């Protein structure tokens, strides 16, 4: 049992520095909802349309996204989840344990940059919906061409910064509400605009079968010709991007922060809700919506921004989907950037660092290139952190198997790990060097970079002390872990357990919100399957716009009311 002195020492530690307590673990349904919420987002509008501009073919998109997203799910399941569940630590805590403060600070700087840019891209995406409502021209250059657009970006950005400061928990819960609605709206948007494409290419509102549907895709959406009029990307590139899009979180191990709460390692498979619905379905739907909007407006897809696409696919609900999807993603990433900055400037509060990082992020968001270049930005960001994931993977999974000592750096009380810092640096030189010499597609650069870093770190760590045995330190570590478990078990007895709201009114609210989603899908189905002519199609589309917006309002009012009732139940 821990002594009074042990309790005092443990209480002084931030909870983030301790392994997750057993009573705080979650079932797979929690992670299914979490990943669905995070990966059905505003980026899907941009990425879906980008595949069209890059000149992929229809079957390459269907097969490539399927294979690539399955590989991503397996990466979470077999790389990230086992380490997260074994240690119950976030990557930041684990990294500090094996590499010291210097490496951790460098890594936090990388995270500040990465998450600020991603957040900026989402603010820009949200601003495209607002600019459309005020009839401000689309921003298609890398720089802003309209001062009112800059004003809108600052207004949208200030809202994001404010919520990141004071309401992150509420936003996390609200993201869970948004996930099913976002999926319904992406699916509905594709159903609503597919007849417009079919009319333009086939002369009818609906393809007669699978072959005609693929032919429609090849002729009007994924044509195999990029925006420059040249042959586009192929199957391997599509697979590579779908796999590489989230290397930050799986090969880069950022999602140890989430999966450390999983009861089982197999819960990494729950990421499939985000990959199969958010990436596979939503990217395809976004491509259809982009091409359909281009036909209606009479422009090419590269001349449109998410605001254009969303409005012609979903009407006023389109404004909501772009703002909400960008809003939730931007806030989450800005919060992460603020935390990383606070870890660097630890004398300042998280609120202060978030304000400073937020203002810089807003300034970046004024330049539309951040969302128009989201594919390479995500890939290069992944390449930046993949070597760190490789170092942790080597330490945790490989060292015990080859007779090296895990946590050797901590056992030696090192605050500066030369093997870790040198391995990260050489990994970056290797990865970006491969890209500079165009050795292979940059979508796959993370794989050789990851393997190279593992080899370098293993060799260097062996020379610096990983080969040695540390019996006394290992025993101290074992005893410390036992004390932590006992401390957390006793602490759990005094914590209030959440109460599930099962009242009749809450059930009614949830049922009404579900019915609103079902009605939206039915209306979209009527547009797709019950539009015998162009006039009927236009009439059905207008009906969808009107009632889908009503359903959107009903959904959010009832779903959020149910959430608030559940929270009040626990507060009381």
Automatic annotation (TrEMBL):
Q: Which residues cross the membrane?
A: 61-85, 106-127, 147-168, 180-199, 241-262, 274-297, 309-332, 353-371, 377-394, 414-436, 442-460, 511-532, 544-564
Record bears the keyword Transmembrane: yes
Question: Taxonomically, which superkingdom?
Answer: Bacteria
Q: Does the keyword Electron transport apply?
A: no
What InterPro entries does UniProt report for this protein, alphabetically?
CodB
Keywords (alphabetical) are: Membrane, Transmembrane, Transmembrane helix
Q: What is this protein called?
A: Purine-cytosine permease
According to its UniProt entry, this protein's organism is Maribacter dokdonensis
